[in-house]
Amino acid sequence: MLVSERARLPVGDEELVTTEHSALNALASLRRHWPEYLMEVGEIALYMFLVCMFATLLLYPASPLFRFVGNTMLRRALMGFLVGSTVVAIIVTPWGKQSGGHFNPAITLTFYRLGKLAFWDALFYVIAQFSGAAVGVGIVAYVLRGAPKSPSVPYAVTVPGILGNAGAFAGEAMISFVLMTAILTSANRAAWSAYSPYLVGILYALFITFETPLSGMSMNPARSFGSAFGAGYWRAFWIYLIAPTIGMLAGAEAFLWARNGNGPRCAKLHHDNEKRCIFHHG
């Protein structure tokens, strides 16, 4: 009877081989997919830069736009339009088309749960997203000097609103569930897939307009991390780590249930392009 080399290894040596194998897989992923990781850094950095810039223009007392747009609801609607347009623009850029346009750890982890990413790709994506958020806030702090850290702006930090922590958690989970369900449904229907980025942008605009008083509207752990990092304000930050991820994972489960266990075909938010794809297809 033949015995494999691994079977003959002592327990300690077997663990060493497994560790070395994992390290080699990590290095291989970095070597092959580093462009996508850097694209995710750039996407979330640009997103955070623009979010903080828009918040400064709309909320900083010395801003002409602050004085011109005096109605709070109108400010939120304008912020929603600007951020929603930014999200669409990033997804359909060449970088967004290649990396998948996630720039959100909750989206990445949900696609990992759905079997669309390898472990190391998911891990490096998440690291890239948190790092990029901090980079974007650092750049906007330098460009706009002291304005984004003003008490009226605080780097667009997300904090619980009118219903406290429970309301913020429920709000974040709910809108994240809706967003992921919409992404998976639209991206996996041939007639709708081309419009997925625009649907995502519309949902961002609506949520910022109407849900912001509840949670500050994040749906993105890296986005909340970037703002908290810049402002040095970590109150209830755990909500923005956990609730969006739970909401999106629940959306994925609902999607699988509705399709009798059949998962999505890819992890890209914009599928129909000629850019290379590092994801698992189905």
Protein model, in words:
- The chain is an all-alpha fold and 282 residues long.
- The chain has a single domain, classed as Glycerol uptake facilitator protein, CATH 1.20.1080.
- It contains twelve helices and no strands.
- It has helices at residues 5-8, 11-59, 64-68, 72-91, 94-99, 105-113, 119-143, 164-187, 196-210, 212-215, 221-231, 237-258.
- Helix 2 (11-59) packs across helix 4 and helix 4 (72-91) packs antiparallel against helix 9 (196-210).
- The longest helix has 49 residues, at 11-59.
- The protein is globular and about 55 Å long.
- The model is unreliable at 1-14 (pLDDT under 50).
Large-scale geometry:
globular
Strand content: under 5%
CATH architecture level-2 label = Up-down Bundle
Helical run tally = 12
Give the CATH class.
Mainly Alpha
Q: What is the CA-CA span between the terminal residues?
A: 38 Å
Keywords:
282 residues; mainly alpha; Glycerol uptake facilitator protein; 12 helices; 69% helix; disordered N terminus
Can you lay out the helices and strands and say which pair or pack?
Layout: H1 5-8, H2 11-59, H3 64-68, H4 72-91, H5 94-99, H6 105-113, H7 119-143, H8 164-187, H9 196-210, H10 212-215, H11 221-231, H12 237-258
Helix pairs in contact: 2-4, 2-7, 2-11, 4-9, 6-7, 6-12, 7-11, 8-9, 8-12, 11-12
